[in-house]
Amino acid sequence: MMKHVNTENQADSRVIAVDRERSLKKLLFRWEFTIIFLFVVINIINAMMSKNYLNLTNLSNTLKMFLDKGIIAFPMMMVLLLGEIDISVASQIALTGTVMGWCASKGANIFVVVTVGIALGALLGWFNGFLITKFTELSSTIITLATEILYRGLAWMILENNAYTAWPEAMHQFSWGSIGGIPIILFVFITEILLFAYVVHFTKFGRSLYAMGRNEKASLYSGLRTARIKRIVYMVTGIFSALASVFLCSKLGSSRANMAMNYEMDVIAMVILGGVSVSGGVGNVVGVAFSVFVIGLLRYGLGLINVSSEIIMIIIGTLLIVPIAIPNLKRFRAESDFLTMLKRKQHRGQTQEG
Amino acid sequence: MAEYILELKDIVKRFPGVTALNHVQFQLKKGEIHALMGENGAGKSTFIKIITGVHIPEEGHIFLNGEEVFFSNPLDASAKSIAAIYQHSTAYPHLTVAENIFISHYEKKGMFLNWPAMYEKAEELLRDLGSEIDPREEIGSLTVAEQQVVEIAKAISANAEILIMDEPTAALSERECEQLYRITNQLKEKGTSIIFISHRIEDMYRLASRVTVFRDSRYIATYDVEGLKKDKLISAMVGREIADLYPKREIEQGDVVLKVEGLSRQGVFKDISFEVHQGEVLGFAGLVGAGRTELFESIYGIESFDSGKICLNGREVRFRHPEEAIEAGVGYLPEDRQRHGLVLSWEIFKNVTLSTLGKYTSLKGIDSRKEKEAARKSSEDLSTKIQSVYDTADSLSGGNQQKVVVSKLLDADLKVLILDEPTKGVDVGAKAQIYEIIMDLAEKGYAIVLISSEMPEVVSMSDRIAIMANGRLPKIVDAKSTTQEEILEIALNLNK
Amino acid sequence: MNGKRNLFSRNIREIVLALMIVIIAVAVQFRTGGLFFTGSNIFDLLREASILIMVSMGLMMVILTGNIDLSIGSTMGLCGMLCALTLKNNQDIPLILLFLMAAVIGALCGFLNGFIVARLHVYALIATLATKYIFRGIIYLFSGGAWVAQAEMTPEFISITTTSFLGINSLIWFAIGITGMSFVYLNYTRSGRHLFAVGNSQSAAEVTGIKVRLTQIRSFVICGVIAGLAGLLWVCKYGNAQSESCDGYEISVIASVVAGGCSIAGGEGSVAGVLLGALLMGTLNNILPLIRVSTYWQQAIKGFIILISIVINAYMQKRVKKQELKRREL
To answer: CB–CB of B132 and C184 under 8 A?
Structure first.
């Protein structure tokens, strides 16, 4: 509809960008179906490979393996909707886990431990948001890269090569307890889906995320509190990272400075595969929810056929790139020098006749 | 030998929703300074981009020294010795002056870059132009005028035979203008052919030997500057009786709504005082760079200010964020509607409700139906040409896009409307409609600030006119007792 | 006319860095009763810092264009492991071939990064985050998780990093060589200057005819080649190739480059600055055990340095803008 015959590389790059957003939107519609389809396929394959797959106990154990990452996927989605990024989540898990462990080792009860953890997570997240909104010359890329290094560094300082293993009794329940046969973490996860679905798709705050992701300046001029919204989103990310840390510490029964290593890769992959665009303004909760399961169950399934964890790393790494690269293939073809040359010859021919 | 060094025939350039150039023509003689004049939106900028290879015309021919040429990108144009200097800088801010000059043709000694030679040559070029700029300086730390001089040096260094200067005097002081005139004449002496685009009639009289006028994307005429009467030129630029174009109404004014006293912001504007009444249109005239947008961005809450007072309906206010301004009843129509006014890829109804989402949100979520209804009603009221409220903003023409932004503003409960260049890039038909809308709004009791760089527009549509220059606001005149030229003179003289 | 920025103000960052190093060195010297300024300690410091200096130069190329490369640690490890495995199985391979191999593998890694960023238009952060894991996974594919031990490598290979030339260790010569080449490339060649141009303003570069995508790919390839060579030297120096070798090394490299004054947005940076930044990091690594600070503090210190550096950069940019506004007479 908007194609300029003579667009090529120099003309309105805005048009190209809008075009790309357009095709992104169209892609997204198909994307949700693709993800749901993948979800079904993976379950079928896994079930075929392991007779015990559909066993309730096995399933709930499987879920425990990745739902803690899934907990962070939704706040991360909000971050990406804004057009930003946060690669410090894994370090936030490690630091909150370390501090929680320290509290526990001093004999604090479960309420204190968890509250301290969550409060710390909120602080770490808020600090990210503060830096990003105060120093607008700096991108969220470099800021969260710096805090990623700093936060885990602090965890190393505190814990060195040791581990905290003395937790209050109740800690065990988080990851290992269940209600009516359903793991607690699944309850939390489903509640989260509903919560984020409401906030992102039914509130002014959610609409603001999409607006800011598409055009932050226009959002500001229209009266949206862009800085405040960013700080809130990063703080929420911190809170849920801390929550994920609670579940992880519970699952492992300990906290170490190197816990949750490389978690950010999976979380970001879950969000990107879920159809959320890294440039912002595109994506929805359904896609992310299914994508969490796709990646989690994919890992599980690959483990079933004894694929080494390193090869799994390669696969998930590729899954980070592919969903971003696909919508860009059109532009890739447009920029290919060979094709450009052909188009030029075409234009020359036209003008000479005209 | 061809009669003209550059000739364009029958050029047509279209963008979605608008024809930017409608069979225009242009002839440039070798060694002449040829002025290109016309109002905002007449097509001058697009035309220049055709010559420099940024845009490719749908129809038409370009001849260089009699031979037809095709530019598919800016490189083709610069290869043919065509260079351009724009209002906004196209420099590399952290690189040195010398490097900016030689960026596309480095001096080499064998395989390696020869910096001493480049610094020497750059120094020579700059001294020739009468400038004392140090070639080792980072170009980003120079003033606009100085950066322009560097751009000119760059063009000379690239042996440009044709130089296009796009509104170079827009942000210059009087003294800097004189320097630019001197340099431009110097270039002419050396045989460079120059196309000089400017709003300022004085520029034309000082420099050009011939002038071409564009109006409404069309070629109007070419005149010899010598002996050309100002009225003839203006009527060619404007085309009709001014009274026809601008539907000004006499509207009864009420109390003072917005009052600004002594507003200052370091390095941007100083000691600004004015007031706007209910039902009044207060025009803000001035050259580009005078500080009008910056002033209102400070009032609206995008930026802050250092000292002074703002009163809304008698109460002192200070908006720390646009949300507060909108809440209090002050709305702002941004100058750049595509970057600051709209989310281009969004549907119209989402754009219209962006400032007032609270109205449409409840526990049940955002009421889409109510949104679309509001958008539909608004586009009816403003005669926005759309197929449906589901249309995305980027599919509309400039004028209709502007109406969508107006719809957004009107969706809120406002008392003051600040309109920053509301008809920039809008075709004539839509312009007239927008003027009617402004009048309707004034009748309804809004206090309206009309920022405009189009002299005819600001003179005809305002009740009073505040003239800004170089960050100051020294004079507010009554629109009925002034002329375009007088305002221009004031705006220029204040640059001294 | 604007105040001319003399030699001092233009190089203020480098001067501050040098001063910092000197101050730290002197402070430690006093604190530890003379442990710092010994011949062996200084040489140790320089040897240790050599690899960091080299890789920092490589990363600088990428950062100048406005991108980032988180995968350099994995590239180093990959080249190191593949060369070590080759050496293990072909003990009589000429060493020069090993170096060539490291460079080529590094170039391929860099090319992949560059392709994904420049042609597929994936943001560098995400692209290199992904390749960091992908390359690391490939290491395991080849190594099966095992090490290549010193005994499995030839003595003449091991001796590369223990030999000296003119009394200076070969590693230091490598660092000097790479630094020198980087200096010449970035200041005296067109393609080197293009890195700055693209980082300054992509749009202006396109209009001027600079091949932006090619420049970006080139920066990644150069970075990859240097990382590859560094990875090989790493194996040589430490006498083994582990599957986790150089994991997380990018933290130190980024700290060096950022502390050395390269703007993360691109377009600004100097070889001298990055050299000093790497020396600062090297000095810190050296003195921590001397003043008996646990090595577990290192990461936090690096994170802190990166944070401080970028905040200072941002403040200085703000200040420049404010000063320009102050200069405007109204």
So the answer is: no
Of A138, A320, A329, the CB nearest to C129: A320
Instruction: Give the minimum alpha-carbon distance from B342 to chain A in angstroms, rounded to a whole number.
Output: 6
The pairing of strands B307-312 and B315-317 is antiparallel
pTM of the model: 0.88
Which domain, by its residues, includes B203? 6-240
Q: Do C303 and A268 touch (CB under 8 A)?
A: no
Tell me the nearest-neighbour CA distance from B140 into chain C, angstroms. Answer: 10
Q: Does C200 touch chain B (CB under 8 A)?
A: yes
Q: Which domain holds residue C260?
A: 16-25+35-314
Facing C2 at nearest CB: one of B112, B142, B270: B142
Query: Are B306 and B454 within one domain?
Result: yes
Whether residue C130 lies inside any domain: the answer is yes
**How many domains are contained in chain A?**
1
Contact B365 A348 (CB under 8 A): no
Cβ distance B270 to C200 less than 8 Å, yes or no, reads: no
Taking the Cβ of residue B54 and every Cβ of chain C, the question of whether any pair is shorter than 8 Å is answered with: yes
Local confidence pLDDT in tens for the 354 residues of chain A: 333 333 333 334 555 555 555 666 666 677 888 899 999 999 998 888 887 777 777 888 888 889 999 999 999 999 999 999 999 999 999 999 999 999 999 988 999 999 999 999 999 999 999 999 999 989 999 999 999 999 999 999 999 999 999 899 899 888 888 888 788 999 999 999 999 999 999 999 999 999 999 999 999 999 999 999 999 999 999 999 999 999 999 999 999 999 999 999 999 999 999 999 999 999 999 999 999 999 999 998 898 888 888 889 999 999 999 999 988 887 777 777 655 566 565 555 554 433
Query: CB distance from C150 to chain B under 8 Å?
Result: no
Distance of residue C60 Cα from the nearest chain A Cα, in angstroms: 15
C140, A310: Cβ pair inside 8 Å?
yes
Beta-bridge partners for B162: B82, B193
* A208-212: Cβ within 8 A, 24+ apart: A208/B357, A209/A78, A209/A81, A209/A82, A209/A233, A210/A81, A210/A281, A210/A282, A211/A281, A211/B343, A211/B346, A211/B354, A212/A81, A212/A82, A212/A83, A212/A280, A212/A281
CB A104 within 8 Å of CB A112: no
Beta-carbon separation of C140 and A308 below 8 A: yes
As a whole number of angstroms, the distance between CA A196 and CA B162 comes to 60
Nearest to C207 among B74, B142, B268 (CB): B74
* Subunits adjacent to chain C (3 or more Cβ pairs under 8 Å): A, B
Distance CA B264, CA B473 (A): 11
Q: Is residue B1 part of a domain?
A: no
ipTM of the complex as predicted:
0.91
